[in-house]
């Protein structure tokens, strides 16, 4: 009898041990659609180490993030140098980020397999803006979100930064903008971001219109500069036009 009970308990604890392993990690494909090089990065608040990768224009990088990960962020670093000066936006101090980047940086945020086995995801301008982002599920049948606008060019003077647009909390550090004293309301600065990116967080308590869900186990695609239009150039032949990697033959007929 003791042997039988012990065997049942062993199987039970083995089941509990293997249960988390049965939940698949989420796959994230990160694509650089910008016309310039970015240094992609990701980090979570969980035990899984983050990482980073240089992505030239048109390159992609695929990562697997553990089920149950919380506080996840994916972002682009820009203006990076190899001489120890770091990056102008999104810098974390090293290529393989182990923590969050420095403002300003547009964030693709996520927490996986949370309440009711749902993934929660969003785009955030709470840490400012440096490049546009499209954050779209590739499975799961739920909608994607996007933030792509001329925010750097139109940035209010008080928030301007090299290659980016700061958030007001970083610049002023007051409870009004940082929401550190309980409930807070939108400000003129947050409305500037919200008008241009309705899907994205514009201030720390902008949850109602800015948090989205997908079933746990969904995979995602994060695209930097989703609205970038490839440069149009003329080939060696006068009737050949190159649009990105696409070559078009143009024929012009003159009426008699």
Give the tags.
256 residues, alpha+beta, Thaumatin, 6-stranded antiparallel sheet, 5 helices, globular, cytoplasmic vesicle, Thaumatin-like protein, taste-modifying protein, signal, disulfide bond
Count of helix runs: 5
Strand pairing plus helix content: what structural class? Answer: alpha+beta
The gross shape turns out to be: globular
- The CATH topology corresponds to Thaumatin
CATH class: Mainly Beta
Structure overview:
- This protein has a 6-stranded antiparallel β-sheet, with no helix packed on it. The chain has a 5-stranded mixed β-sheet with strand order 4-1-13-8-9, with no helix packed on it. It has a 3-stranded antiparallel β-sheet with strand order 14-15-16, with no helix packed on it.
- It has 5 helices and 16 strands.
- Helix content is 15%, strand content 29%.
- 36% of the residues are buried.
- Mean pLDDT is 86; it is low at 5-10, 12-22 and 230-256.
- It has one domain (23-229): Thaumatin, CATH 2.60.110.10.
Short description:
The protein is 15% helix and 29% strand. It has 256 residues and is of the alpha+beta class. The chain starts with a helix and ends in a 7-residue tail after the last strand.
Set down the secondary structure blueprint.
Elements: H1 2-18, E1 26-32, E2 38-43, E3 51-55, E4 60-65, E5 72-77, E6 107-111, E7 118-124, E8 133-137, E9 145-147, H2 151-154, E10 160-161, E11 164-165, H3 168-172, H4 175-178, H5 188-196, E12 212-215, E13 220-224, E14 232-234, E15 240-243, E16 246-249
Parallel strand pairs: 1-13
Antiparallel strand pairs: 1-4, 2-3, 2-5, 5-6, 6-7, 7-12, 8-9, 8-13, 10-11, 14-15, 15-16
């Amino acid at each position: 009898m003791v042997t039988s009970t012990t065997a049942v308990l062993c199987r039970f604890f083995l089941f509990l041990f293997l249960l988390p392993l049965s939940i698949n990690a989420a796959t994230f494909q990160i694509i650089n659609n910008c016309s310039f090089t970015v240094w992609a990065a990701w980090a979570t608040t969980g035990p899984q180490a983050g990482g980073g990768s240089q992505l030239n224009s048109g390159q992609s990088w695929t990562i697997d993030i553990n089920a149950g990960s919380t506080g996840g962020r994916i972002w682009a670093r820009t203006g990076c140098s190899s001489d120890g000066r770091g990056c102008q936006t999104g810098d974390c101090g090293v290529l393989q980020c182990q923590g969050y980047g420095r403002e300003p940086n547009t964030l693709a945020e996520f927490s996986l397999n949370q309440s009711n086995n749902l993934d929660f995801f969003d785009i955030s301008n709470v840490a400012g803006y440096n490049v546009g982002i499209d954050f779209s599920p590739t499975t799961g049948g739920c909608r994607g979100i996007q933030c792509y606008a001329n925010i750097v060019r139109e940035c209010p003077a008080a928030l301007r930064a090299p290659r980016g647009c700061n958030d007001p909390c970083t610049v002023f550090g007051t409870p009004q903008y940082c929401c550190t004293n309980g409930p807070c309301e939108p400000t003129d600065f947050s409305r500037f971001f919200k008008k241009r990116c309705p899907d994205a967080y514009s201030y720390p308590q902008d949850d109602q219109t800015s948090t989205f869900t997908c079933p746990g186990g969904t995979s995602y695609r994060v695209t930097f500069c989703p609205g970038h239009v490839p440069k149009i150039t003329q080939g060696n032949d006068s009737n050949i036009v190159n649009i990105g990697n696409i070559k078009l033959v143009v024929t012009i007929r003159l009426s008699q």
